[in-house]
Specification:
The protein is α/β, with parallel strands linked by helices. It has helices at 14-24, 35-49, 59-65, 67-86; strands at residues 2-7, 52-57, 93-97. The protein has a single domain, classed as Barnase, Chain D (2-Layer Sandwich), CATH 3.30.370. The protein is globular. Residues 1-90 form the Barstar (barnase inhibitor) domain.
Length: 99
């Protein structure tokens, strides 16, 4: 399992959110910087590299500064896991945070 940490305030707006994930997970140059593209790129990353653990420090800051991204991160991670397990695979994304 690959483990990553991020401070909640680093993801404080959509631009910073997508910057973090594009750089950290080496998304391709054609990454569309929206949550549909995020789903696809994270799924591809996890399928190539295995289970990913993402720990969000100070998640309350992310939730306060960018509540839409906070909710999207939870929902999209759940969707990636559902899509994988629905086909008989294993979960791909583990989120760890406390609000």
């Amino acid at each position: 399992m690959k483990k990553f940490r991020v401070e909640g305030n680093v993801l404080k707006d959509w631009e910073k959110f997508h910057d973090f994930f594009a750089k950290t997970f080496e998304f391709p140059g054609y990454y569309g910087r929206n949550m549909d593209a995020w789903n696809d790129c994270m799924s591809d990353y996890c399928c190539s590299n295995g289970l990913v653990s993402l720990h969000i420090d100070n998640a309350n800051e992310l939730k306060a500064q960018n509540p839409d991204a906070f909710e999207a991160l939870i929902e999209c991670s759940a969707f990636i896991n559902w899509r994988s397990t629905d086909k008989g695979g294993e979960p791909l994304v583990v989120l760890s945070f406390y609000v």
